[in-house]
Amino acid sequence: MQLKLSKVSHQYANKFGEVIIPLQDVDLSIDRGEVLTIIGPSGCGKSTLLFILGCLLKPTQGEVVIDSIPTYRLVEDELAELRSRKIGFILQQSVLLPTLTVRENVLLPLWIGPKPFNKKSAEQKVTSLLEESGLLERAKFLPHQLSGGQRRRVAIVRALVHDPELILADEPTAELDDVNRSLISTWLLELADKGKSVVIATHDPFLTGVASRVYTLNKGLLHLKAKPGKSHEALEVLA
Ligand SMILES: Nc1ncnc2c1ncn2[C@@H]1O[C@H](COP(=O)(O)OP(=O)(O)OP(=O)(O)O)[C@@H](O)[C@H]1O
Description:
The protein has 8 helices and 10 strands.
């Protein structure tokens, strides 16, 4: 996916009319196969930026263009369709439905999404994703029967089940041990190798180490921190 933000600003107001401007004139381009990380202090606007990139939030100013389509031209149904076809969200809280098994939680976006799917090939896809993530033996477990790291991996698998072109991850490795952090870093990098675009809000050096570009966000301004590096080499150093 090719994604471009031009002069994007966003402002929130509370009920007393106080205004917060977490993004100011942000320009950003993302291409296929790139891994970008965004770092910055708590409350600086990282999630806001991810929500705008994922078309969950319309910026108050500026333009978001996805595969040559300016998103302001799309109505809400078209945006929902775009999200469910092309975008995978890994949110800060791995919210899994407590009464559904791991397999059912992963299948959920296909059941409720607008995209028709073949039941048999969906089952196969889920099986192979669960296998890749080391979760196949837990396919029939309920979320409360999993460890925190396993729950996070289920949430990631769920974000990938519809084969999105853009993956947006908000602190995907927070509070995980080194094994899980390394596994998730490797996994996100492999997705980029397959041509996916990956944007991650994080402070985790495992993730900033494998990124093609690292940005800092502070006081509304986005700055490039590091020039493109050799991501595989970075991962080997960290392993
Ligand atoms: N719906 C909202 N209404 C008003 N202000 C909001 C709203 N959502 C976020 N904000 C404010 O916008 C700022 C940016 O929030 P955001 O969640 O994007 O930050 P963040 O960098 O992701 O933070 P963290 O790292 O703590 O998750 C914060 O100061 C927050 O209080």
